[in-house]
Specification:
The protein is an alpha/beta fold and about 300 residues long. It has one domain: 3-Layer(aba) Sandwich (Rossmann fold), CATH 3.40.50. It contains 13 helices and eight strands. The protein has an eight-stranded mixed β-sheet, with helices on both faces. Strand 1 and strand 2 form a beta hairpin. The longest helix has 15 residues. It is globular.
């Protein structure tokens, strides 16, 4: 049902639901482009000039999550904020949800924008796409901020999978879309509530906004495919690590103190040589929603620091 064509009522209701939400807006200097990749079309927000930075979101959000950080970075960076394949306003093809393919989506976007090197800032599934990008194109990533989610196949991945809070990683089967159809808000509330230090910080306006986007035709089908690809991602990442060795770029690994905390850096030290740890206090998984000021400050401090000569 989720892949069926939308009804007229759905087409009329979705813009109204989205327009009524309260997510922080991007500065008016940001323009959007629909950029074709190999197998998808990504909805991309772009503004600014200077060193390029790419911001990659995860599940339960879209690129809209980055508005407070984008407002800070756009003063002195060229800021590129895509919706990942299958999410937000990007297209929702049947396949291509392994993270190596999605990393190539990002490479295609940068090629279209004539950008060679970038700083990366990633969260949740964006971390997984970010790793696949950095491992396949290591000379293109100057620095990387990775936030509060594991990377398939890297470090204690098998132990992380046993955490009952991550039940959704294996929530699959022929009926999952029927179970969630029309109940997207109920499903997403579980993550916004259970992964927050204080669920009230993921406010009602943001919940309405993202629930409407994930209720679009094909959106939950694509979301489930993101998780279904984790086994392939784990194999791919182990091969990338074995072939290319550890990443050399400076990495800031950020965790919420009520979520991944220092584990974020511990995971990354299995696959990178220059990892700095930072924990955001009084925060769960949703760092940009729960502690936006502290998170923006941490990211800016890292990206503004002069690079050491190698």
């Amino acid at each position: 049902m989720s892949r069926a064509l939308p009804t007229l009522a759905a087409l009329l209701l979705l813009p109204a639901a989205t327009a009524s939400a309260d997510v922080p807006p991007f500065p008016p200097s940001f323009k959007t482009q629909e950029i074709p990749t190999h197998g998808a079309t990504l909805h991309v927000r772009i503004a600014g000039s200077g060193p390029a930075v790419v911001l990659l979101h995860g599940f339960g959000d879209t690129g809209d999550m980055w508005a407070p950080l984008a407002a800070s970075l756009v003063r002195d960076h060229r800021v590129v904020v895509p919706d990942l394949r299958g999410m937000g306003l990007s297209s929702k093809p049947e396949g291509g949800y392994d993270k190596k393919t999605q990393a190539r989506d990002i490479a295609d976007v940068l090629h279209a924008l004539k950008i060679q090197q970038v700083d990366l800032v990633t969260h949740d599934i964006g971390n997984m796409v970010g790793y696949a990008f950095a491992a396949q194109y290591p000379t293109r990533v100057i620095r990387w901020v990775i936030m509060d989610a594991p990377v398939p196949g890297i470090g204690p991945w098998e132990e992380i999978l046993k955490n009952p809070l991550l039940w959704h990683f294996n929530f699959r089967g022929p009926d999952v879309e029927r179970l969630v159809a029309g109940r997207e808000r109920i499903y997403l509330d579980r993550f916004w509530n259970e992964f927050s230090a204080d669920p009230r910080r993921f406010d009602e306006g943001s919940r309405r906004h993202y629930a409407a986007l994930y209720a679009q035709p094909g959106a939950m089908h694509a979301a489930f495919n993101q998780f279904a690809a984790f086994s392939q991602d784990a194999r791919d990442n182990q091969e990338l690590l074995a072939k290319g060795g550890k990443l050399k770029m400076p990495i800031l690994a950020i965790g919420g103190d009520r979520s991944f905390g220092m584990t974020m850096a511990e995971v990354m030290r299995f696959t990178a040589t220059d990892v700095e740890a930072l924990v955001i206090s009084d925060a769960g998984h949703w760092l940009m929603e729960e502690q936006p000021a502290a998170t923006v400050k941490a990211i800016r401090t890292f990206l503004d620091r002069p690079l050491a000569r190698r």
